[in-house]
Amino acid sequence: MLSEIANKTRNAITTVVKDADDVVSAVRESVTSNVVGAVHNAQAMATAPIEAVSEVVRGAIAALGGVSHSAIETTSHVVKSAITAAAQNGHDAREAIQSTVKGAVLGAAEVGGDVGKTTVSAVTGAIEAAREVGVGATEATKDALAGAMKAGTELGGHAAETVKSALHGAVAMPKDLLASVFGSGKS
């Protein structure tokens, strides 16, 4: 009898988790589609500066943070899609990487999201996008880190330290590359 109750409970929870995963996937696809559309629209409105891409991503991440705990998981997909769309619309891919990561970090901070985890997810998405837009891994990593640090600097205080700590803890790369992003003596 008790094992039957345990089995029913397990099955019910498994169904709920699967349904939740399906919802998260649908949200991720919808947000990504909207971000790509917004990047295309920003380009169509004129010679939109790359900052428009940053603002699109910033708004998307802020919106996700306000409604979903899966925002961190979705961040890498949003960043990857925004960079790809920006490059397809004629923006410099390296500028798009830097600007998009910055926008993601600022968006998370706007809604009190986990800035450290969002930073790592955004950098991961940027590095994944680099392959699709013809940017080398080292250059993409450097640009993504620079974008994250620009966001951290703009946020200031504890947020800047959170960004820096997240990057140091999650990104394994040569000390000379870290030094070029963070400044000498801080690798």
Query: Main sheet, how many strands, which sense, barrel?
Result: none
Strand-and-helix sequence, N→C? Answer: HHHHHHHH
Structural class: mainly alpha
Supply the number of helical segments. 8
Number of domains: 1
Cα-atom Rg, whole angstroms? Answer: 18 Å
Whole-number average pLDDT? Answer: 76
What is the tally of beta strands? 0
Please state roughly what percent of the residues sit in beta strands, choosing from under 5%, 5-15%, 15-25%, 25-35%, 35-45% or over 45%. Answer: under 5%
Taking the alpha carbons of the first and last residues, their distance comes to: 59 Å
- Helical content stands at over 70%
Overall body shape = globular
Unreliable spans: none
List the helices and strands and how they pair.
Elements: H1 2-44, H2 50-67, H3 71-88, H4 93-110, H5 115-133, H6 137-155, H7 157-170, H8 175-182
Helix pairs in contact: 1-2, 1-3, 2-3, 2-4, 3-4, 3-5, 4-5, 4-6, 5-6, 5-7, 6-7, 6-8
Structural account:
The protein is globular and about 60 Å long. The longest helix has 43 residues, at 2-44. α3 (71-88) packs antiparallel against α4, α5 (115-133) runs antiparallel to α6 (137-155) and α5 crosses α7. With 187 residues, the chain is an all-alpha fold. The chain has helices spanning 2-44, 50-67, 71-88, 93-110, 115-133, 137-155, 157-170, 175-182. The chain has eight helices and no strands. The chain has one domain (2-182).
Please name the defining characteristics of this protein.
single chain, 187 residues, mainly alpha, 8 helices, 84% helix
Question: What is the structure about, briefly put?
Answer:
The chain is mainly alpha-helical. It has eight helices and no strands.
